[in-house]
């Protein structure tokens, strides 16, 4: 057997040579876990080109449903690349292709298929499938151009939402329902006219996650009772927390809400009415953020290995006795599945050994190496701080751009939105708990900051790993 040449390199030496014409095909079984025969430089080059390569852009049609909405005269209204169709007119017209072409100025050619026509005639149309003959229901067709396939639906929805917002709709009307139809240039459409749910299913309730009564009892037992005066004092930070967590649709909005929360926290916590932006973040937020990130990593890795996965899922495989013993040690008895964080670091090395032939071993090995010594922890903390500082710089640039009226980068905001939210929640939580427990916000924040610094120092000097979670003597 022979194959033609395959060469993907864009410049000489950037990848290994492809097979040349008349080269014999390697008939050895393919091993997906086998390392590629590439040098470090070649792997770096390949990764960079994969990241920078823009996916092909094209033209796509996306359909949405709205309700309730009504038309005065014509069965459809067109605004550029968006056409709104009265549901009853469209549903009946789709039973006959010629009638559809005559009825509408913008003909929905992608719907003129035998499959959809037969479905409309069958009587099997419902909330999830086909086009309903229902009063007050509106179908909208949005065409997007020069957009990557994976961004077509969000671009179409953004366009539709913008038109609705600018033109203005009556309260509780022209609401976009769930589900959509997606069409590209391909004549093959495996999903047909299947929309999905109009409204999302209610979120399931797991009683195991309900710890309000326990936490409230603990707070009361510790002598912290929130009076009406304390509740009033908590309103400003609670409003900022609500703005940070409720219904934020895009990364830019998240970043701006986080910046506002951090700025307010600076005035409440730092001395003399606030520090410089960078100084406040560095002095009061980053030590706790860094330590918490490492502590969560240890807990998540151990929980995954002890409770979520098994090293061998083949039929008839049994759980190793050592793994079951670890699970019994770290999983706490009581309501739901809770893990004893303080016990997790001691089991990382054993779990690394138990999961030696499982994909989880890579993360366990990295965590085990970090915990191996104070020097290793110190190096890991330094690396993490460098990564965090880079994100802080990105967040600072977005903040400065907003202050001075400059444009914000969607791409930059997207890379730091979750980081900014976590940092802001941390700052607000410090203020909220200071007020709730009757302490001065600045004093409470300083005590927390100093405690986290002491815990990091103990860890990097080879001290007790329990300092990930609490300060040890």
Please describe what this structure looks like.
The chain is an alpha+beta fold. It folds into three domains: 1-53, no CATH class; 57-183, no CATH class; 226-473, no CATH class. Helices cover 50% and strands 8% of the residues. The chain has 16 helices and eight strands. The protein has helices at 40-52, 87-93, 97-103, 114-122, 152-167, 212-221, 228-233, 235-245, 251-269, 277-308, 321-330, 348-354, 361-371, 374-403, 410-436, 441-460, and strands at residues 57-67, 76-79, 82-86, 138-148, 175-176, 181-183, 331-332, 338-339. The strands form two sheets. Strands 1, 2, 3, 4, 5 and 6 form a six-stranded antiparallel beta sheet that branches. Strand 2 and strand 3 form a beta hairpin. Helix 10 packs across helix 16. The longest helix has 32 residues, at 277-308.
What descriptive keywords fit this protein?
six-stranded antiparallel β-sheet; 3 domains; 473 residues
């Amino acid at each position: 057997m022979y194959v033609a040449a395959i060469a993907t390199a864009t410049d000489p030496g950037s990848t290994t040579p492809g097979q040349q014409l008349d080269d014999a095909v390697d008939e050895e079984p393919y091993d997906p876990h086998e390392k590629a025969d590439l040098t470090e430089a070649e792997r770096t080059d390949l990764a960079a080109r994969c990241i920078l390569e823009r996916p092909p852009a094209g033209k796509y049609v996306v359909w949405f449903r709205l309700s309730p909405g009504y038309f005065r005269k014509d069965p459809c209204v067109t605004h550029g690349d968006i056409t709104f169709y009265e549901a009853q007119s469209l549903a009946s017209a789709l039973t006959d292709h010629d009638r559809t072409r005559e009825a509408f100025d913008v003909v929905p050619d992608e719907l003129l298929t035998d499959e959809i026509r037969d479905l409309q005639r069958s009587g099997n149309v419902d909330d999830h499938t086909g086009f309903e003959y229902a009063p007050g229901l509106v179908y909208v067709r949005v065409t997007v151009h020069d957009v990557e396939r994976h961004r077509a639906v969000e671009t179409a929805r953004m366009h539709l939402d913008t038109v609705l917002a600018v033109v203005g709709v009556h309260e509780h009307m022209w609401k976009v329902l769930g589900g959509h139809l997606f069409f590209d240039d391909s004549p093959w459409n495996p999903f047909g006219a299947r929309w999905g749910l109009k409204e999302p299913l209610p979120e399931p309730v797991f009683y195991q996650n309900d710890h309000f009564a326990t936490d409230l009892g603990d707070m009361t037992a510790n002598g912290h009772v929130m009076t009406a005066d304390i509740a009033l004092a908590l309103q400003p930070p609670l409003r900022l927390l609500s703005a940070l967590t409720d219904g934020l649709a895009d990364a830019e909005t998240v970043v701006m809400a986080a910046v506002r929360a951090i700025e307010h926290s600076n005035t409440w916590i730092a001395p003399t009415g606030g520090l410089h932006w960078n100084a406040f973040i560095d002095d009061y937020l980053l030590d706790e953020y860094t330590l918490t990130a490492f502590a969560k990593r240890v807990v998540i890795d151990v929980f995954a290995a002890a409770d979520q996965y098994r090293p061998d899922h083949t039929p008839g495989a049994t759980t190793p006795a050592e793994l079951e013993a670890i699970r019994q040690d770290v999983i706490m008895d009581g309501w739901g599945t809770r893990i004893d964080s303080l016990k997790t670091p001691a089991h990382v090395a054993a779990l690394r050994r138990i999961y030696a032939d499982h994909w989880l071993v890579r993360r366990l090995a990295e965590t085990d190496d970090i915990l191996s010594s104070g020097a290793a922890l110190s190096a890991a903390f330094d690396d993490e701080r460098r990564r965090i500082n880079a994100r802080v710089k990105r967040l600072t640039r977005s903040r400065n751009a907003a202050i001075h009226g400059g444009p914000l980068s969607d791409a930059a905001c997207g890379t730091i939105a979750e980081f900014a939210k976590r940092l802001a929640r941390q700052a607000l939580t410090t203020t909220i708990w200071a007020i709730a427990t009757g302490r001065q916000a600045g004093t409470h924040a300083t005590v927390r900051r100093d405690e986290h610094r002491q815990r990091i120092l103990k860890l990097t000097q080879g001290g007790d790993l329990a300092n990930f979670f609490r300060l040890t003597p």
